[in-house]
Amino acid sequence: MATDELSSKLSRRLQIEEGAEDPVAVDAPEEQNGSEEKPSTANADSELGAKLMRRGELNEGQGEPSQPSMKVFNPYTEFKEFSRKQIKDMEKMFKMYDAGKDNYIDLMELKLMMEKLGAPQTHLGLKNMIKEVDEDLDNKLSFREFLLIFRKAAAGELAEDSGLSVLARLSEIDVSTEGVKGAKTFFEAKVQAISESSRFEAEIRQEQEVKKKQAEEQKQRRAAFKELQSAFK
Q1: What is the CATH architecture of 75-170?
Q2: Which of 41, 66, 218, 222 is the most exposed, fewest CB within 10 Å of its CB?
C-alpha cells in the first residue's frame, strides 16, 4: 500500500510540474500504527524529494544524466611515443613481476622487482616510487602508470637518484643521459638496448640451427648405411 501511495504521489507531482494538472490541497492521512510508519515514511519522502529535485534540474537543463565511464585504456594510442615492440617489451616486464596476476604491481611486488634489478629500496623509498606515478591513488601500479615511468624518464622528469629513475635505467635502457633531449634519442637507445639484449637469443637460435643440421646429417648417414647393408644381403 505504501509503495502504491508513493508512486501515485510521484506521478501526480510530475504531472503538476509539467502543467498537466493544477495543484490540489490534500489532507494529511491519519497516522496508523503510531510511530512504526514514521521511519519508512521519512525515508520514502527523502528519496522522493531527491528524485524530484534531480528531475527538476534535468528539465531546466541544469544537470546532465550520469552515465558510467566506458573509457578503455589503449597503450598504443595513449603512448604514441613508444613503438608497439617497446610497449610489448614493457608489458612483458610488467607481467613478469605481477606475481598476483591481478594486473597491478603492489608494494611487495615492486620490492621484489627492485631486488631482482640489483637496486633494493627501503619501505619508504618504495612508497615514494609508487606515489610519483600513482594517479588514481590506489597505492599500486597499473600498467598505464608503469608506462608513465618510462615517459617521465624519456622527458627527463625524474630525479637522477630517484627509485623510478633507477628502475628505468636498469630496465634495458639507460635514460640518465637523455635528459630533455627528447624521445628520439630515447628510442634510439631503446633499439640499441633491445639489440644487445637479443644477442643472446640469436646465439641460442644459431645453436639450435646447428643441432638441427647435425641431426639431419646423422639421419642421412644412417639411411646410407642401411642401403649399404641391404646391398650386401
Answers
A1: Orthogonal Bundle (1.10)
A2: 66
